[in-house]
């Protein structure tokens, strides 16, 4: 294949996992042209040093700016044709990258979500509060992009049921061109859902691919309540912005 893959890893205090994650990414993409970009988001441990010793591009924020900011920093330095976003805590299996990028290479979809919620996906240690919160967030996201967005845009986006099973997944793939079509304003975890909203707004085809996930021994920086509320506020703000933008153009 001629397409180059850029794997972008936002990481904060991931010294325990980043060193073993990078070789696995390299192995999974041995048949591809690729680059790996680790964005150290103000870590207090030696995440940055470990990444640099693994001979990958390493960017660093002097202080934590948020996951979304880290993803955007990585994308800004990426040179690939396809961007893959992967969490740095080792929860995602790099071996799934070829499956996640396949629909883009086959021109079957534009934004691919690595879904932990498919029955064929092995999600070890997916604690029930997080599962409930993720299912609720996914349902709300599905409603918004399928119905609310078409209504506020006066059906420029057609009403069409788009079911999202894992809106909060940090394992996503998108082409460089389509990434730059997304108007992403969030700097925190809410960027995961914002990407889906913006993809729907730009009429991009959204698909999910089952992935394995291992959260054993790991902790997430995601706050179910705090970050969930931020995501809801962001989506409401975006919908209101659609209405105001339409009124301004009238």
Describe this structure in words.
The structure is a single chain. By secondary structure, the chain is an alpha/beta fold. It has a single domain, classed as Spore Coat Polysaccharide Biosynthesis Protein SpsA, Chain A. It contains 8 helices and 9 strands. It has helices at residues 18-28, 47-53, 67-77, 97-105, 128-152, 176-179, 191-201, 224-249; strands at 4-11, 33-41, 57-61, 82-85, 111-115, 123-124, 172-175, 206-210, 213-214. The strands form 2 sheets. It has a 7-stranded mixed sheet, sandwiched between helices. A two-stranded parallel ribbon has the order 6-9. The model has no long low-confidence stretch (mean pLDDT 90).
């Amino acid at each position: 294949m001629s397409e180059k893959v850029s794997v972008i890893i936002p990481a904060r205090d991931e010294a325990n996992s980043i060193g073993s994650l990078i070789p696995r990414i390299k192995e999974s993409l041995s048949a591809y042209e690729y680059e790996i970009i680790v964005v150290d988001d103000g870590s207090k441990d030696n995440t940055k040093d470990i990444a640099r010793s693994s001979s990958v591009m390493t960017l660093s924020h002097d202080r934590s700016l948020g996951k979304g900011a880290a993803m955007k920093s990585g994308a800004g330095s990426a040179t690939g044709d396809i961007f893959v976003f992967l969490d740095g805590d080792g929860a995602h299996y790099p071996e799934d990258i070829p499956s996640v990028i396949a629909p883009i290479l086959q021109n079957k979809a534009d934004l691919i979500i690595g879904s932990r919620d498919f029955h064929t996906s092995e999600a070890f240690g997916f604690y029930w509060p997080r599962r409930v919160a993720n299912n609720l967030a996914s349902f709300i996201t599905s409603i918004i992009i399928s119905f609310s967005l078409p209504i506020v845009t006066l059906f420029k986006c057609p009403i069409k049921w788009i079911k999202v099973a894992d809106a909060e997944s940090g394992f996503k793939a998108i082409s460089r061109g389509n990434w730059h079509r997304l108007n992403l304003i969030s700097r925190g975890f809410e960027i995961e859902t914002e990407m889906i909203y913006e993809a729907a707004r730009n009429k991009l085809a959204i698909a999910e691919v089952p992935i394995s996930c291992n959260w054993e021994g790991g902790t997430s920086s995601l706050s179910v309540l705090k970050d969930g509320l931020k995501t809801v506020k962001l989506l409401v703000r975006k919908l209101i912005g659609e209405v105001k933008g339409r009124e301004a153009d009238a």
